[in-house]
Amino acid sequence: MVEFEEFLGKMDNPDQRARAEEVFDWVAKTFPTLVPKIAWNQPMFTDHDTFIIGFSVSKQHLAVAPERAGMIFLADEIVKSGYDHTNQLVRIPWKSPVDYSLLKKMITFNMEDKADCTTFWRK
């Protein structure tokens, strides 16, 4: 994915880089209308210039940020996933499997909930 090449190239751990690339590729293939972009030095996907999902990396995990509304909507499923989380993001440990079903629900919720949104972030 060309848009994220520079970001991925800065990752030191090749296994983590491969995992992040796998997730980004999955999002792009599953949701082909989303636009990949780097903003605030982080990879994210947008729809009609509104934020849908963002990612960040640390030594221990890949973080997924669907905005607070998505976290609230999927709170029970996030808890069931067993992933550590905050009010704003879900942490997927590098050595844990990615719950693509949960990720799909996050993205679908934001796309539907923000279909008429005219701002980048929710107001």
Task: Give a structural overview.
With 123 residues, the protein is α+β, with helices and mostly antiparallel strands. The chain has a single domain (2-112), classed as Aspartate Aminotransferase, domain 1 (Alpha-Beta Complex). Helix content is 41%, strand content 24%. The protein is built from five helices and six strands; from the N terminus they run H-H-E-E-E-E-H-H-E-E-H. It has helices at 5-9, 14-30, 67-73, 75-81, 100-113; strands at 35-39, 42-47, 50-57, 61-65, 84-85, 90-93. It has a six-stranded antiparallel sheet with strand order 1-2-3-4-6-5. A hairpin with a 3-residue loop joins strand 3 (50-57) and strand 4 (61-65). Helix 3 packs across helix 5 (100-113). It is globular. The chain starts with a helix and ends in a 10-residue tail after the last helix. The model has no long low-confidence stretch (mean pLDDT 96).
What's the total number of strands?
6
In the CATH hierarchy, what is the architecture at level 2?
A: Alpha-Beta Complex
So how many helices? Answer: 5
* Helicity, as a percent range: 40-55%
Mean pLDDT, as a whole number? 96
Within the CATH hierarchy, at the fold level, what is the topology? Aspartate Aminotransferase, domain 1
